[in-house]
Amino acid sequence: MQHATAVRPGLTRCLTLGLAALVVSAPAFARPTEQSAEDRQIALAVSLLMEKQHISQKHIDDQASERCLDSMLKSLDPLKLFFYQSDVEEFNRHNHELDDQVRGGNIRTAYNIFNRFLERVDERIDLALEQVDAEHDFTLKEEMVRDADAAQYAKTPEEAQEKWRRRVKYEMLTFLADDMDPSEARDKLRRRYTSIRKRWEQTSNDELLEMYLTAMTTGFDPHSTYMSPSTLDNFEIQMRLKLDGIGASLRSEDGYTKVHQIIAGGAADQDGRLKEGDEIIGVGQGSDGQIEDIVDMKLNDVVNKIRGKRGSVVRLEVRPVDNPKDLQVYELVRQEIKLTESEARSEIVEWGTKPNGEPYRVGVIALPSFYMDMDAARAGDPNYKSTTRDVRRLLKDFNAKGVDAVMVDLRFNGGGSLTEAVNMTGLFIDKGPVVQVKGPDGRAQPFIDPEAGMVWSGPLVVLTNKFSASASEIFAGAMQDYNRGLIVGDDSTHGKGTVQQLYDVAQLLFRLNKQKNMGAMKLTIQQFYRPDGASTQNKGVVSDVVIPSLTSHLDVGESDLDYALAFDKIGGLSHDEYQMVDSNIVSQLRDSSKARIDKSEDFAKDIKRINKFEEQKDRKTVTLNKEEFLAEREELDADKEQEDAFEEAVSNDRPVFDKEDHYNQEALSIMVDYLMLLKNNRVAIAR
To answer: Which interval of the chain is the signal sequence (predicted)?
Structure first.
């Protein structure tokens, strides 16, 4: 199975949790104990695969060992709040031994590091809880280090205490800035810190193994990772867009499990009692099973208890959001849930005015990912779930309804199936190469549009942003190289130009076919190139017309990741030219868009926010003076802006296309200008 998925910096955990709110595998509710025989087998398999199949053809050596230790410490303690400097120095004395250990199937170092981490978590949470009850002077002129690279590990208990005094003071300040009562703020912080300790103590052997082996493999490139059994389950659900459960997306908040979204058509939606914002505090199996308290339980483990075989019963003890004192028990029958919010969706939007006075009609396709139900496809199911099949159906509907143009919205599309990226591109071109892939041997192989003819031959705009990655970049890059469509959005896309192969560990070790889930290795085996020969690696696909947006200024691109592979080029391939886009058209569209944006009050506010965001995000510290904090926050809260962008990236409840949004309105205006400039040249004909 080949994939062109992107792991987004800062979003990895959100993505896992967001999907875990729908499905996880077998429960693991205990702190790691010691390395098992299975751990050893998996470590051996992963190390062998890395050395034999990774595109770099590098060995697991001392450099990989150093990177592994560094990544492990960052994943556990990114802000350097828990470990002492002496802990890190102790670990570093063995930083050239990890490679030899992993190649021998030995991962005991992971347990040593993690057990020390749990000791420090206990100590630091005790400090934090003391500081929650302490009095803080918010008139003092003092700051807290917020930048991970600028932060230092504490050398003494006194330094650790001071770190946590400032940390608690900062978090208290954020609550007070929202006009929260101080006693309520203290209660929330007590819950938060207590929950942090409990969640780390619930880390399973599988999770620790995934963390450690991924720390080793991402030293080769950011996208080579070991996926534990539960992560593999989540990945497969993301690709096939269906699961068995109650149809509720959940989130964890300070130890409580809250309903984030009710999935349309699912069991919870049909029942009607469970609402967004409700707290689930207990779960029972069957109609008479004992209800188990789930407060402070990890989200993955909560979901595992709620998920189950379709037709079976689960009972939820719920604290309703609109009446928290009236606890309710809801009995629900699990069923198959189709994740329709994650599939291609469409809408016809009217905008602008034609010469005859009628509005232009733009068919918008929102595409969150490039998905394919691989198991169903392999089994020969003629109706397997597929991006290309869904988009083909939507385009045929547009043709039947006579739209003037099509807009494919790939914002926040992190990639998916390479096959689907190639096949979907074929819906917009007659024939020819879509992408080239190059493996360790240096030879490039073209992936060709397998089907002659176009489903949509009219004007095309592709909307992208910095979260558009991998398979999205294959599609956008081909449209640009063929001069087939106009690329509009952020300065450039994410910049992930690598292809991953998924290796099932159990099948690899024992030649078992789905008999046992031992996780999988997602391994970078190839780099891909556009038809004209340029890689998208690090540079992405540069937009023809840029619309100002905060996402363009977030440090979420491939080039922001540790150990990303380098950009390069290979020879281009012969292909059709459609002349639907040229430099003259692009220049005129840029000028017209800039003129509108310069007059727009909404974009003036956006640009002011962007400038303030750039100013704040470069600061290494944040003030703990309440007056200064409130003044800065009134202008802009950079942390909140970035958090909101990440939330949008993983959200599945966005509308197809919000016509009232000024950004979207500008995209539509660019489309109308484009149609007017094309005049009678509105059919893509190869030249």
So the answer is: 1-30
